[in-house]
What does this fold into?
Amino acid sequence: MNIRELIKQRQTENFTLHEQYLNAQMVNVLKTIGFDRHYVKAEGPYLFDAQGECYLDLLSGFGVFALGRNHPKVIQTLQQVLTSDLPNLVQLDVSLLSGLLAERLLTITPNGLERVFFANSGTETIEAAIKFSRCATGRAKIVYCQGGYHGLSMGSLSATGDPHFRNGFGPLLPDFIEAPFNDLAALEQALAGKDVAAFITEPIQGHGVRIPADDYLPGAADLCRRYGALFIVDEVQTGLGRTGKLWAVDHWGVEPDILCMAKPLSGGFVPVGALACRQWIFDKVFNRMDRAVVHGSTFGKNNLAMAAGLVVLDVIEEEQLVENAACLGGQIIADLKALVEQHEYLKEVRGRGMMMALEFSEPKSLSLKLPWKMLESANKGLFSQMITVPLFTNHRILSQVAGHGMNVVKFMPPLTITDRDRRWIVDAVSDVVADAHRVPGAVWDFGKTLATQAMRMKAKAN
It folds into this structure.
């Protein structure tokens, strides 16, 4: 098969194929908001469509493309693996590359983590963390945070505090207890019975980019130790430099018992996830020879994934991407914060490194308040689409709403963006936010269209 020729021949059929064989509703969404482009090339932080237009990708595959797309060093390494005739997934064997990647990871993770388990994705590492914590403590209960997101498989979904993803899939797993994020008193109440296996949280909540108070994560770690629960941090999205530190917990000097990572470790090519934990936890799970394979993942230690992880760590260090995330990300956040005092709709700009959010809220001016209420009555969080869509259609910036029903726009640029990209982002946001304050105007004509469609969908659902 000549895959390049196949792609060339059928390049414009992607939407038709998905409508017929895959998720037609996703196609409907893309067409409704005008995101239905035919991308033909990707390089670094940029996407290129069939017309040759260049787009700045601030979605990064939900954080996968920390190195940007098609990084040449990652490609070169994977090509070496493919042409080396290496034994792969022998299973009754222990592979060299997985040992090398585990060794490397444990030199950069927080103190006290001494063992690694490899899987295919972030949600698989969460499933492993749940199982490991129950086995290690002999307890069943898992405490998770309201608003948190940990994945969509059954165990990780049971620890996800967002009803939008949970609805329709119950009953979920028992013994999962929700606590408010950033609330130490509530967490202590949940742990006080000394029957909780683990508390799991994202250091910074991805949905909404919610940053905790400075005492929250250190306090949570102390409470877990006091009541005998394990402290699990989900760094699937925040880890490996995203927030301007190698790990988001490093902002607060926290040492977890279990750390989950995934997205950027893949380089965007081969799915990979990893769990790092304390040795005593690992030893409780794999405590006898007949339990050596009591938990595993068939493709988890495949050579391509392990090689991708190794070269990703090299690139992060060589190109000083953590430092770039801290410096340039901080500049972008500061530039965007300056817009808050100028625009009523813009409530707050927040973030760490290359993980940032713009939150919008109801204004005080009557002329702006009425159209806001019109959108919110049609569908909560609809205003944020009036930011992401013009950013895309007018400025060729791909971004996302930070969560269902939220008026929060989220940016997760590749860690490789430049100062030119910073100016592109700030100029585009300045223009779009200012335009949203012009009522009536072209943006609000689009807003009325969105509101009408939202009300029609509500009517159909009822």
Observations:
- Residues 72-318 form a domain with the Aspartate Aminotransferase; domain 2 fold (CATH 3.40.640.10).
